[in-house]
Design goal:
Helix content is 39%, strand content 27%. It has 442 residues and is of the alpha+beta class.
Length: 442
């Protein structure tokens, strides 16, 4: 596989998407191929049938390979699911010498301390995101590196998940003959694809309505402040239509997509859809008003749960107000009149998020659908990871060149302080741990 090509694999409850992309000369993302398959072994974002999931992954990957004319080797995968939860935590370290400036090592020490938090059985910390720092009691410091101080403390946003679920995803990818190049939290991937930097600064809530789960990510001042996964999505709406109208799931899904609306007032009483009966039975007649009442009831429940999370973050405090409102994305966001309903319930400005923020201008219309927001975000994440590796390699090569003629220690120390290399995110470390686990588990 070419070096600057990245593959995102979105393992969802309803569909699995493999997307191949690369950066063009303008720094925009060009999509080379997409493969999509029905997801059979995933329930509410969690793998519950390894064999079926592997088959679905292989099918999506083959389709993407055929479209792009490339062989896929490694993928960046998203993790979500009902086992993900988040919490806020503050921690501090006392530095041995306050007359030496704070550097990366201090921050790593502080972050590693957060990893020692005791979790529920089977849970592990996936993500530790520093919010803001305090140095010797001075608050609201965004970047403490280079400052003097004895006590360094920070507020953290900690994301926790079931480690066995993450390993199962890794197992599926390995069994489908693919390399696991990176793991990313799905709400973060979707956010990268559909939000602009201005929105992240102003304060915005991204709601990604998938088949099995609804993911929420809240940004303010350019930093992620809150994440949550609500274990309902488009599938429960289909389920309700199926039960309420006594029809089969396939028909319920089609009804929802074609005639569904989240706002019952839109339909007149005499608008009726006729559904063919099962083998030799009479066709069923369903009024669109009833259909939208069923949809409305469930959508309101989902939105209200999300709104509780937004309030938990503290949206009603002036300092935490989300000026850019709400951005809806994911397949479920395509429901008619959903935007109006969300605005009505939350009183916040709302728009539908299309993943065209970073895409090349001539991208296919299919790609810019909210359905593919997470996949686009995962491809972007893979490209970013490759760029970071490249920089690290260049820095290492420089170190080698510099160390040859001189005593070894000096230049290495110097290069350590180079700001070029981004700190490895915990997700990179998690990826390595999942890989190690899979290698040793055979």
């Amino acid at each position: 596989m070419e070096h600057n090509i990245s593959v995102g694999l979105d393992i969802g409850t309803t569909k699995i998407v493999a997307m191949i992309g690369r950066k063009n000369e303008y720094g925009k993302l060009e999509i080379l191929g997409i493969g999509k398959s029905k997801s059979l072994g995933v329930h509410r974002g969690v793998v519950n049938n390894i064999t079926q999931t592997i088959q679905s992954i292989q099918q999506a990957v083959q389709e993407a390979e055929a479209a792009a004319g490339l062989k896929i080797e490694g993928v960046t995968v998203g993790i979500a699911g009902q086992h993900i939860r988040s919490l806020q935590h503050s921690d501090y370290i006392t530095r041995a010498n306050s007359e030496v400036v704070i550097d990366d090592d201090d921050i790593d020490r502080l972050i590693n301390q957060v990893h020692k938090l005791v979790m529920l059985p089977g849970e592990e910390i996936i993500h530790v995101l520093p919010q803001e720092y305090k140095v010797d009691g001075q608050a609201e410091i965004m970047e403490p590196i280079g400052m003097y101080g004895g006590r360094l403390e920070a507020n953290f946003h900690v994301v926790v998940g079931q480690v066995s679920s993450i390993r199962n995803v890794g197992r599926c990818i390995q069994s489908a003959d693919l390399n696991l190049e990176g793991i990313t939290l799905e709400p973060l991937a979707s956010a990268n694809a559909v939000l602009s930097q201005e929105e992240k600064e102003a304060g915005v809530a991204l709601i990604d309505i998938g088949g099995g789960t609804t993911d929420l990510a809240i940004f303010r001042d350019g930093i992620i402040r809150h994440t949550a996964v609500i274990p309902f999505g488009g599938n429960v709406i289909t389920e309700d239509i199926k039960e309420g109208c006594s029809i089969i799931e396939k028909q319920a899904e089609l009804l929802k997509i074609k005639f569904g609306s989240a706002w019952p007032g839109e339909n007149k009483d005499n608008e009726i859809v006729s559904i063919p009966g099962l083998r030799g039975r009479e066709p069923k007649e369903i009024t669109l008003k009833n259909l939208s009442k069923i949809i409305h009831a469930r959508v309101v429940e989902i939105i209200e749960q999300v709104y509780v999370e937004i309030k938990n973050y503290g949206h009603e405090e002036q300092k935490k107000n989300l000026i850019a409102g709400i951005v809806l994305t994911g397949g479920g966001s395509q429901l008619k009149h959903l935007k109006q309903l969300v605005e009505y319930i939350t009183g916040m400005d709302t728009r539908i998020g299309y993943p065209n923020e970073h895409l090349a201008g001539d991208s296919d219309e299919d790609v810019t659908s909210p359905l593919f927001a997470t996949a686009v975000g995962l491809v972007l994440d893979g490209i970013k990871r490759q760029e970071r590796k490249k920089i690290e390699q260049e820095v290492e090569e420089e170190v080698v060149e510099e160390t040859e003629p001189v005593v070894e220690e000096q230049p290495v120390e110097e290069v350590k302080k180079e700001p070029v290399v981004e700190r490895r995110s915990f997700l990179d470390k998690l990826t390595d741990r999942v890989k190690d686990f899979l290698d040793n588990a055979e």
